[in-house]
Amino acid sequence: MSGSESSDLQVPPQREDDLRSPSELLLTVPPSVRHSEDECATRRNTRAFQENSGNIPNADTHGPYSFSNYTSAIEHIKQKITREEIGFVRFEATDLHGVSRSKMVPARYFQEKAMHGIAIPRNYLELTLSPKDNEVDHINAANFNSDVLLMPDLSTFRALPWASQTARVICDSCSVTGNPLRTSPRLVAKQLLRSLHNLGFSLQSSFTYECCVFGAPEKINPKMFFFPGATLMSNDLSFFQQLINSMYFMGTDVESFASANGPGQMEISFQPEFGICAADSAFTFRTGIKELARKQGYIASFFTDDGFYNSGIFSHSVWDASGRRNLFFSAGGELSEIGKKWLAGLVHHSAALSCFMAPGVSCRRRLAKAAKEPKHTIYATWGCNDNSCNFNIKSHGSRGMHIENRLGSAMANPYLVLAVTLAAGIDGIKQNLSVDADHTGNLIQQKKVVIPVKLEDALTALDEDDIIKGALGDTFVQYFIAMKKYEIETEELDTERNKCLEYFI
Fold first, then answer.
1. Which letter does DSSP use for residue 155 in this model?
2. What whole-number distance in Å separates Cα of residue 208 and Cα of residue 268?
3. pLDDT for position 233
4. What pLDDT does 346 receive?
5. Which residues contact 468 (CB under 8 A, 6 or more apart)?
6. 303: left (phi over 0), alpha (psi -120 to 50) or beta
7. Beta-strand (E) ranges in 95-165?
8. Which has the higher per-residue pLDDT, 365 or 177?
9. Rounded to whole angstroms, how far apart are CA atoms 277 and 185?
10. Cα separation, 334 vs 330, whole angstroms
11. What sign does the CA torsion over 114, 116, 122, 124 have?
12. Quick one: what percent of the chain has pLDDT higher than 70?
């Protein structure tokens, strides 16, 4: 995470590839302390889940947390808790939809929960959008209905500027025996970052979101109407100033914000960050703006429907392992050969990517609208400085060259957006895929790759894409597809979809 607080915790980062079992980790503890319950819990905590803090592109090269470093970090946080009179700590994790799920504990229990984790029902993290049902047929129903543990990434500990005497820490999830939860979006993203690092590369990325800010809702005949804050940018600039300042304090560095096209719609962009930090920042913002808006009498929503569309753009570039050289840039300001292979991977797997970029039935109505007719075929497009393309190459100098993945809506889970983009790009490099170019070397659009308009067709494409399935993990993909099929089967009328809107608020 970036920001003024990121240097406050000098915690040695965890290796991304340290996914050992609890017994293997226990063997790394000196025999004199091997039987300490707290140390065993700490080993379980740190073994797989914390990637890095700050802006170090491949902090995993520094090795795993040691017991002494981890306990030292906890002591540092305890001092911060006392100094800032923090009374409660929110242990927060993302569910499959990218929405925050958390448990709050009194600050006096922080050390215990940081060492041993905090239990939460598994279906809190794997629920569907239906307000009445929060389960699907799972591979192992007994496991689905069990508890899992939230294990904190201590580098993400921050006092919440908008909540009195309250702090939060982002967590990863594991079983009560310490095995990683394979449906955890943050874990999936970190595994793909590890794969990229194994190739000698690092990822710098950022998100740009559109979201709508509304006035208080009123129910009329039983539909729910919202009054958009269309003049918010001019009449309540203090709200946005407070939002930006609060986000910076949380380690989420906002680069710019502006009014967007729709009524009450705003666009906000973040500074690029290395590793998992970009997704952490997006996750923090998505929760923070909702909570701040509520305090000011507004409602902020990332929901996408045919009535209004909130886009989500994932800008990214591949760098060397040290994070010093942008490997997408080549002499003359053109996309490099590595960049072309990466782009080809994105295009080749765009049908599967669309499942995660536009994950809701309502998201894909924009594709259907663009297609004019429901059965019309949509093709993946790419271009240079062309915002109408799905994959847009932006050439802003040697450090600013990047690709925008514009397939997504703002409803997409940022961790899954990062993960699936990595999976497709890495395959492009490994398989030496290529995009078409003319005799001068300029990229041209010749190959046609279909992007399904309907979500059920996109899910079929995902199920048939063995590369993406293998990269994300069979368990994760099977569950994701089952969950989405359940949502399609239980799609509700307009009044019920407003409940879905409440979920994203």
1. G
2. 6
3. 52
4. 96
5. 349, 352, 353, 420, 423, 424, 462, 477
6. beta
7. 100-106, 118-121, 147-152, 158-159
8. 177
9. 14
10. 6
11. negative
12. 71
Distance separating alpha carbons of residues 234 and 239, to the nearest angstrom = 10
Q: Within 10 Å of residue 423's Cβ, how many Cβ atoms? A: 27
Cβ atoms of 47 and 151 within 8 Å: the answer is no
Residues in the chain: 505
d(Cα 299, Cα 209) in Å, to the nearest integer? 16
Indicate the DSSP class of residue 163.
S
| Closest listed residue to residue 498, CA positions, set 288, 301, 209, 285 | 301
Instruction: Assess whether pLDDT exceeds 80 at residue 475.
Output: yes
Both structure tokens of 263: 């009524």
Cβ contact 361:468 at 8 Å: no
Element (H, E) at 190: helix 185-198
Q: How far apart, in whole angstroms, are the C-alpha atoms of residue 439 and residue 458?
A: 35
Angle at 337 between CA 335 and CA 343, to 5 degrees: 65
| CA distances, 300 to each of 136, 216, 246, 261, 286 (Å) | 29, 10, 16, 16, 9
Question: Is 374's pLDDT higher than 60?
Answer: no
pLDDT at residue number 266:
86
Through-space distance between the first and last CA atoms of the chain, rounded to whole angstroms:
24
Q: At what angle do helices 455-464 and 474-489 cross, to 10 degrees?
A: 160
Residue 122 has pLDDT above 80, yes or no: yes
Contact 404, 314 (CB under 8 A): yes
Whether 199 contacts 54, CB under 8 Å: no
Average pLDDT in the 384-389 region?
Answer: 88
Residue 96's alpha-carbon distances to 157, 174, 199, 356, 473, in angstroms, are 22, 15, 28, 10, 14
Report yes or no: 173 and 150 within 8 Å, Cβ to Cβ.
yes
Task: Select the more confidently predicted residue: 259 or 438.
Answer: 259
